[in-house]
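ingest -> fold -> write
write: protein_1
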Amino acid sequence: MGEEYRAKVFKSGNSLALRLPKSLGLNDGEEVVMIPHADGSFSFWKQGQQRDILLSLFGSMSAGFMAEGRGDIDQGDRDWTGPASSAA
């Protein structure tokens, strides 16, 4: 992981704002994408970096990731003779 940064949340009108340190390298007016996680943490990155983020995640998989395949996937037999139903 990288360096840790601290930020302060403050009220701005009827909204909350997050004051980020200049040392993060963001520019005035620059848009960021912010994703909340179930554990209460957040991830954020500069708008337009989604491709780079995805590729970095792909590169972080171990060399043996899924080397043995997905394993057995047990699926029961389906009854294809029943009445037609719409796909969900």
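write: protein_2
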Amino acid sequence: MRTLVIIPTYNESENIGSIVGRVRASVPEAEVLVVDDGSPDGTGELADALAATDANVHVMHRSGKEGLGAAYRAGMTWGLDAGFGAIVEMDADGSHQPEQLPSLLAALRGVDRPGADVVLGSRWVEGGGVVNWPARRRAISRGGSAYSRIALGLPVKDVTGGYRAFTAEALRALQYDRTESQGYCFQIDMTRRAYDAGLSIVEVPITFVERERGASKMGGGIVVEAMLRVTLWGVTGLPRRFRKRTPAPTAEPVARA
């Protein structure tokens, strides 16, 4: 299964070399696509330099900052068109440890269990966790996942995490290209679409490490977008979820002559 790791970037010049190098060392057979949204700090040029010396590194240059969701949609389309069978989402800042990627891919490929359609790197299952987060940030993240899980009826612990692997068939089935979210709400949207499409979802424990260099892209607008969209999806999806959970009536046996 050819694997593509998509890494969206915006002003990640301090991190891009390290993260790409760690991915290539951890999963040498995987290829990397850096999707740069016109970073003014030169991230795109640094990525080009990496690609010039490694045929398994590719770069997509976009004209400006359009959001995480748009970057992933563009990268996924590129990967599917190129024939990759597995596509991975990963942050550029080192918070998603490339050394844990083999565990996600093993779950996707069915090394120790039946293969999954979608694998979520989860901070909130047994064995997962976060490093260098203050209590407030931890509470916001866990609260956001809990609210999304309850509002949307999702049977997963980490709804908002961004370290994920999909089969190509799963991405097509959940219609990733029809998502509209631009911030981290994109991850919630992808999770609910995967569940609604009946795909198998597995959570693998990861340790999320807070970035050491550069600035976080998490802003108030991203949180507001997520709250509004999740609430809307939750309300409009209630009738469908109720029907899904209500057992079908047992059919009466047909009398035979």
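write: annotation protein_2
Helices lie at 16-26, 43-53, 68-81, 101-109, 135-152, 168-174, 185-196, 220-245.
Residues 10 and 39 are 5 Å apart (CA to CA).
pipeline exit 0
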